[in-house]
Amino acid sequence: MAKVMDFIKVTPQYFIPKHLLSSGMHWFMQVETPWIKNNVIKLLTKIYDINISEAADENIENYPSFNAFFTRALKPEARPIDDKPNSWVSPVDGVISQSTHIEGNKIIQAKCHPYTVEALVGGDIGYAKIFQNGEAAVIYLSPKDYHRIHIPIDAKLLSMTYVPGDLFAVNPATVRQVDGLFARNERLVIRFESEKGPFCLIMVGAIFVGSMETVFQGKITPDYEPMIQHWDYTEDNISFAKGDEIGRFNMGSTVVLLTPEGQLPELGKIHPDTPIQMGQHLAEYPNTSETASNKTQEDHSEH
Q: Which of 93, 145, 147, 194 is catalytic?
């Protein structure tokens, strides 16, 4: 029965004009007519049980549009940042829908649905090799979640690539049904370098996600471009401290995190369907002294 329900939910998405509908949603979210945007905000706050008390501004009438409300800032105390030096924090509010070890270059999206790191990062084979046998985590944001994206650890921005693609929904039913979903939808592949090495944060678009934007490049979509676009920031010296805002989604979507082999093993060992909030502990770098000690003991035991 569950498979039948998934089929019913997903199949229409192959035929509807997803980009056109998403552009329409983006336009609607910019409407500033007070009686329209105020009533829409009230309605969706009730439907999705949005906790308005966390907002920096709790008066919905002060938001010029529904988009401004949806990407609202929160009170600083609403999302404290885990301050352990070796810890990564969650970049977003949401549910950790997947946490896995990357098998060679393959990530298992769902049963019988593998996709490659190369496909996910837009075909950059050289860059994809960095994450062979590394770790991956997928965090799903629902419409009720806080929709700003923050950096999980202190890092320098290297580059960003816009990869055009489809706009399937990213809910659990679609994840189970659509092959290579996260490597199929449009996305922003953002490359960072931390003291421990490189990592990648990928913002995945979805139907009705009216736009994706970053603090360093502004609004990226819409328009929905047909070609890959690339921005190189290596000479710009743009750095972020753990918990700094780096981008925003409208409505719900997904963030994918990639780390190289051995850098952050905990990232691939988180229990699926774990709810998490931005700033909470996500994973911790291994203790290098303990790792070295264990390896020495293993080497001695082999001899």
A: 93
- Rounded Cα distance, 218 and 215, in Å: 6
Is 303 marked active-site? no
Q: 3-class DSSP state for residue 183?
A: helix
pLDDT of 303 reads 46
159 is catalytic: no
Q: Which two tokens stand for residue 93?
A: 């509010």
Sheet containing strand 148-150, edge to edge, reads 148-150, 245-249, 212-214, 218-221
Query: 170 pairs with which residues across the strands?
Result: none
Sign of the CA dihedral with 173 first, then 175, 179, and 181 last? positive
Phi, psi of 187 (to 5 degrees): -160, 160
Provide long-range contacts, Cβ within 8 A and 24+ apart, for 15-21.
18/166, 18/167, 18/168, 18/207, 19/167, 19/224, 21/207, 21/208
Q: Which of 6, 150, 194, 211 is catalytic?
A: 150
Work out the pLDDT band at 276, boundaries 50, 70, 90. very high
pLDDT band of residue 296 (cuts 50, 70, 90) is very low
Contacts of 212 by beta carbon, 8 Å cutoff, 6+ apart: 188, 203, 205, 219, 220, 221, 247, 248, 249, 250, 253
Which residue shows structure tokens 């490189």? 198
93 is catalytic: yes
Give CA separation, 288 vs 100, 195, 196, 199, 298, in Å: 22, 13, 11, 18, 15
pTM for the model stands at 0.86
For tokens 């075909």, name the residue.
Answer: 123
